[in-house]
From TrEMBL:
It holds the Pfam family HTH_18. This is AraC family transcriptional regulator. Keywords: DNA-binding, Transcription, Transcription regulation. InterPro entries: Homeodomain-like_sf (IPR009057), HTH_AraC (IPR018060). It comes from the Bacteria. Residues 192-301 form the HTH araC/xylS-type domain. PROSITE patterns: HTH_ARAC_FAMILY_2. GO terms for molecular function: DNA-binding transcription factor activity; sequence-specific DNA binding.
Length: 302
């Protein structure tokens, strides 16, 4: 049976990281160089926290989701609460092990403007091989944010503490958004390959009549087809084309609807059912939103 480590409280994290004192019950910063415990191969780790980890050393891979993470030297990984990390090989204490981890409970940001925006930081749901690779300048900027948070944790808690800590977390996350945007740009060639694969998968799906057997393709299906997480794929496509994954699915869907409208006498309801819409009105609404015309207006115009 695989060993499991469950971190349920900040105190659990601090004990593991050799930081015995709890400076704040909802947030902590871990210095990887001070971790004095090894982690056995195959260990599953779950946490009740948002976790942002940066490491400046090379170890063997970990798995987050179904695939190995590209979590190499100088890279940063963001993990949402309740997710499972699996160690692919034993990680032992090393003298050159450096880096930091910022862990904070959702309760810390609940009711704040950051709490309402967390869903916009989609990189917390990148489940496969896309850690954020940082330049030296980017590393320092993020570390400066960590130092500001640590400075607040070292102070006595007062009425300003939470606002200042949350503001610096938000600043750090905004920098992460910027750097992920830069990473999408620098990987433009590989992104184009993925775009080509997406278009090929969708074209084959509709041409092969898979929609009759399997229903409309989902973002999850499309992401699995190119071995990416749904959020990462949508963000990549948005950067490349201005359309997210769902928009691409709708584009091919509307093209298929246009073909049927022009090459058959099927009613709008029949076409909607043929395209796996339970409600014809919903099909007509999507069609008009994408073309500016209702299905019947499109047929009559052409």
């Amino acid at each position: 049976m695989k060993p499991i480590i469950q971190f349920r409280s900040i105190n659990d994290i601090n004990k593991f990281g050799s930081n015995k004192s709890v400076k704040h019950p909802l947030i902590t910063i871990v210095d990887f160089s001070k971790i004095d415990q090894s982690i056995e191969e195959g260990t599953q780790i779950t946490m009740d926290f948002y976790c942002i980890m940066f490491k400046n050393y090379c170890t063997n891979h970990i798995r987050y989701g179904q695939q190995k993470c590209d979590f190499q030297e100088g890279s940063l990984l963001c993990i949402a609460p309740k997710q499972v990390i699996v160690m692919d090989s034993q990680i032992e204490k090393k003298e050159n092990m450096t880096g930091w981890g910022l862990l904070f409970h959702p309760d810390l940001i609940r009711g704040t403007s950051l709490g309402a925006k967390m869903k916009d930081y989609t990189f917390f749901s990148y489940e496969t091989s896309e850690a954020l690779h940082l330049s030296d300048k980017e590393k320092q900027i993020l570390y400066d944010c960590i130092l500001k948070i640590q400075s607040e944790l070292d102070e006595n808690i007062d009425t300003h503490t939470q606002n200042l800590i949350v503001s610096n977390i938000e600043l750090l996350l905004n920098y992460c958004s910027r750097y992920y945007g830069r990473q999408f740009i620098t990987r433009k060639n590989s992104n184009k390959d993925i775009l080509t694969q997406v278009e090929t998968h969708l074209q084959n799906y509709f041409c092969a009549g898979s929609i009759k057997e399997k229903g409309l393709p989902t973002v999850k299906y499309l992401a699995e087809s190119v071995h990416l997480s749904p959020n990462y794929l949508s963000d990549l496509l948005k950067k490349e084309t201005g359309m997210n994954a769902q928009d691409h699915i709708h584009f091919f869907l509307i093209e298929e609807a246009k073909n049927i409208l022009m090459n058959s006498d099927s009613t709008v309801s029949e076409i909607a059912y043929k395209l796996c819409f339970e409600y014809p009105q919903y099909f007509s609404r999507i069609f008009k939103s994408k073309t500016g015309m209702s299905p019947l207006e499109f047929r009559n115009k052409n």
